[in-house]
Amino acid sequence: MKRFMAMLNRNKNKDPPPPKLLDLAEKLCKTLQSSSSSLEKLVEAMMGCKHKMYFLTNIHIVRACVLLHIRNGQHDRACKLLEYCKAEEKEELVQLWHEVHYRRVMERQQTDFLTPLQKFRCRKRNPPPTSLCPEGLKNRNYPEEVRQSLHRFATEVTANPDKKQREGLAHQMNLQPIQVYNWFANYRRRRKS
């Protein structure tokens, strides 16, 4: 830690700082995860210097900063940091974004965990910003023509196809047989209610 602080002070006017500084910060973030007071000092030093955005290109540093903000109950600050960081690992940043909102809901409801349904609702209410996923969130629904074909088969042929029919439909629509099986099971379940 002392070595990092000395190196940070020595290179505070260099633009960009040496890569060794970023490597040392990454190693410290990994090793100080459990020691919150030391990690807090490290994060304050990195976020207080003019090279803040340089540090926020490393996913390990971003994760350490976000987890520290969550621990301190600073959810908005963690979200802002995620929104403006320049790390390349977008999927991990989206997971951190969701984690911030899960923790916020758990604190509000004074609980230690969330059910899968609560997590789903939390993700729907708090979608990640376009800076984290520019292509938008993945849509898990099948394309319209696939749904229409499956629906037509269910109404015209059978709502309970056998294994051979499911495999044929799966091959025809470029799906896995289990996906076709689940679609028909859900279709029958929806019709009952």
From TrEMBL:
<dbReference type="Pfam" id="PF16878">
    <property type="entry name" value="SIX1_SD"/>
</dbReference>
<dbReference type="GO" id="GO:0000978">
    <property type="term" value="F:RNA polymerase II cis-regulatory region sequence-specific DNA binding"/>
</dbReference>
<dbReference type="InterPro" id="IPR001356">
    <property type="entry name" value="HD"/>
</dbReference>
<keyword id="KW-0238">DNA-binding</keyword>
<feature type="domain" description="Homeobox">
    <location>
        <begin position="153"/>
        <end position="193"/>
    </location>
</feature>
<keyword id="KW-0371">Homeobox</keyword>
<dbReference type="GO" id="GO:0014857">
    <property type="term" value="P:regulation of skeletal muscle cell proliferation"/>
</dbReference>
<dbReference type="GO" id="GO:0048741">
    <property type="term" value="P:skeletal muscle fiber development"/>
</dbReference>
<dbReference type="InterPro" id="IPR017970">
    <property type="entry name" value="Homeobox_CS"/>
</dbReference>
<dbReference type="InterPro" id="IPR009057">
    <property type="entry name" value="Homeodomain-like_sf"/>
</dbReference>
<protein>
    <submittedName>
        <fullName>ANHX protein</fullName>
    </submittedName>
</protein>
<dbReference type="GO" id="GO:0005667">
    <property type="term" value="C:transcription regulator complex"/>
</dbReference>
<dbReference type="Pfam" id="PF00046">
    <property type="entry name" value="Homeodomain"/>
</dbReference>
<keyword id="KW-0539">Nucleus</keyword>
<dbReference type="GO" id="GO:0005634">
    <property type="term" value="C:nucleus"/>
</dbReference>
<dbReference type="GO" id="GO:0000981">
    <property type="term" value="F:DNA-binding transcription factor activity, RNA polymerase II-specific"/>
</dbReference>
<dbReference type="InterPro" id="IPR031701">
    <property type="entry name" value="SIX1_SD"/>
</dbReference>
